[in-house]
Design brief:
Mean pLDDT: 96
Radius of gyration: 19 Å
Largest sheet: 7 strands, parallel
Helix content: 25-40%
Bound molecules: NADP nicotinamide-adenine-dinucleotide phosphate
Order of helices and strands: EHEHEEHEHEHEHEEEEHEH
Strand order of the largest sheet: 3-2-1-4-5-6-12
Distance between the termini: 27 Å
Strand content: 15-25%
Length: 265
Amino acid sequence: MTTVCVAGATGWAGRAVAEAVLASQDLVLRGAVSRSAAGRDLGDAWRQAPVGVVVVGDVTQALAGIDVLVDYTAPASTKGIAMAAIEAGVHVVIGSSGLSAADFEDIDAAARASGVGVVAAGNFSLTAAMAQAAALLVARFLPQREIIDYASAGKPDAPSGTARELAERLGAVSTHPLVVPVSEIVGHPEARGASIGGTQVHSLRLPSFVVSTEIVFAQADERLTIRHDAGGTPTPYVAGTLLAVRAVPSVVGLIRGLDTLLLGA
Ligand SMILES: NC(=O)c1ccc[n+]([C@@H]2O[C@H](COP(=O)([O-])OP(=O)(O)OC[C@H]3O[C@@H](n4cnc5c(N)ncnc54)[C@H](OP(=O)(O)O)[C@@H]3O)[C@@H](O)[C@H]2O)c1
């Protein structure tokens, strides 16, 4: 039995993951973290029957006896929570967005030093992982591309974890200089988006979107677009997160991207 603590267990994604852990045969929910629900039973915090897990507000109080910590909190807290778990010898699955490539380098180094595994994915949906794997394949042959990241008007971070991870990983496959460098753009250069790993990324924040990610590849006279659209529930992220929870105890250091985990690359 693998013991699991979910940080962000009262949130939109974390609750769905915690419920799935409770329902599974091989995983045990042993801890839950949320500041506003600290001291309450997690089921009570969900306005349901008690589940026998008392929520704590600080992750360091929840790590004893835990094999895997899952983080679905917020961009500002994720790195600190992951580092606390790693230092305590606990494997980590990171679902929260907002970490930079430099943050992931720090996390990888700390995980290797502690001999624990970390699996991080900007998108734990299995179909998003397929889209990402396809994009990484195409980038070997079509280096000119841009990413459009669509999300709800209230999303606090930009770009999305999905788009950021994709841009950084595409940059490791191939790069192509912009025909007109951003510094030479006439008008509003910021309209060309952010350059992440050598790819221009454009974030739209509008009502009605959840998270959609579009990668437009192009060469003379033809284009290829790969697009993933998430619906309005956290269901798509649960299976991929549990897959990572089950795999991470066999990992040392950081694996980034659910597709990397699935393909064993
Ligand atoms: N990788 C993926 O597939 C995927 C899928 C969905 C979402 N996400 C990402 O996951 C993150 C969470 O998204 P969400 O929509 O579930 O957010 P949410 O509904 O706002 O939930 C956030 C949860 O984290 C807790 N939390 C926030 N800050 C905390 C802190 N400093 N210490 C302890 N607990 C803290 C919140 O409780 P309190 O406020 O009471 O502390 C709440 O339980 C976001 O970064 C989002 O982009 C990733």
